[in-house]
Amino acid sequence: MEMWLKEAQIPDAAMTYKVKETLIRKKTKYQDLAIVDTDFFGRMLILDGIIQTTIKDEYVYHEMIAHIPLFTHPNPKKVLVVGGGDGGSIREILRHPSVEKAVLCEIDKDVVEECKKYLPEISSALDNPRCEVFIGDGIKYVHEHKNEFDIIIIDSTDPFGAAEGLFGGSFYKEIFECLTEDGIFIAQTETPFYLPEVVKRVYNDAKAIFPVTKLFMAGIPTYPSGFWSFTIGSKKYDPENVDLSNKIDLDTKYYTKKLHKSCFTLPKFVEDLIK
Ligand code: SAM
User: How far is the CA of 229 from the centre of ligand 1 (A)?
Assistant: First the structure.
């Protein structure tokens, strides 16, 4: 018998994936968690019916959310990831030798535990001695830490439930205070095809607080529409105009120094959206 996973992406559109095996399915304190195995995409983490990451295409998201800010900052030493319990962002962050400490603040301990068990390719760096895993609400954590992190990465679920407060002006003010004086923040900010109003609002909220605000796109096959946005707020450095010539070369699959500059060139409809 064939098993198909159907992900409703908007009320009028859904994607389906052929599933080989369900490895785990449970209700955690915060969400419905599943990890399934598929032929084409390999193992997938699914929260509340929404695909979070897959073995096949996770590198796009994790390389771009980590390397764009880390290569923009001249000397990132301390990095905070809010959400990101699968560990993919931490894995990429720790490839930067300047990073002394990376803190993961994930609200749901089951995400961390099950990803360690079933997705070791993504989660292995969570056991690195330079990584500290803190289980708790990122909103509270950011509020309680001031002037501490060079980079903050918001690697969250979509703006509903526990993640709702991670999108918007009042949280970005707290992030500004949690960052060091030349700090940079980045967030995954949804797709302009399906959620244009979220992309626009988040960009404008960040722009009202950060001297430099930029939006870039990446192609992620298993995210709704395949066309995903990230928003950067920076106190000092412009990610589009940074000199990358003396930066180390990492063995990546999506990120390149050339792409670092070109990803900020936006299609007309996205440019218009954030004008
Ligand atoms: N790459 C993913 C995406 O865009 O689909 C995000 C993956 S990551 C697993 C998202 C994580 O954010 C989830 O594990 C969720 O538990 C966590 N999260 C949601 N709200 C949170 C909050 N307020 N504080 C900390 N973590 C949060």
Answer: 16
Each of the 275 residues of the chain gets a pLDDT tens digit; together they read: 899 999 999 999 999 999 999 999 999 999 999 999 999 999 999 999 999 999 999 999 999 999 999 999 999 999 999 999 999 999 999 999 999 999 999 999 999 999 999 999 999 999 999 999 999 999 999 999 999 999 999 999 988 888 888 988 899 999 999 999 999 999 999 999 999 999 999 999 999 999 999 999 999 999 999 999 999 999 999 999 999 999 999 999 999 999 999 999 999 999 999 99
CA-nearest residue, atom 8 of ligand 1: 84
Out of 106, 199, 254, give the residue to mutate to test ligand 1, the one with the largest number of ligand atoms within 8 Å of its CB: 106
Which residue spans of the chain are classified as CATH 2.30.140.10? 3-52
* CA of residue 273 to ligand 1 center, whole Å: 26
pTM reported for the whole predicted model: 0.97
Residue 61 · residue 224 · CB < 8 Å? no
**Ligand 1 pocket member 113 (CB < 6 A):** no
CA distances from 94 to 63, 67, 78, 132 (A): 11, 10, 10, 12
Kindly report the protein residue whose alpha carbon is nearest to atom 14 of ligand 1.
85
Looking at this protein, which amino acid is placed at residue 270?
Answer: V
Query: How far is Cα 41 from Cα 160, in angstroms, rounded to an integer?
Result: 26
Residue 111 and residue 47 in contact, taking contact as beta carbons nearer than 8 Å: yes
Q: CATH for 58-274?
A: 3.40.50.150
- The protein residue with its alpha carbon nearest to ligand 1, atom 21, reads 163
| Cα–ligand 1 centroid distance for 147 (angstroms) | 23
At the fourth CATH level, the homologous superfamily of domain 3-52 is Spermidine synthase, tetramerisation domain (2.30.140.10)
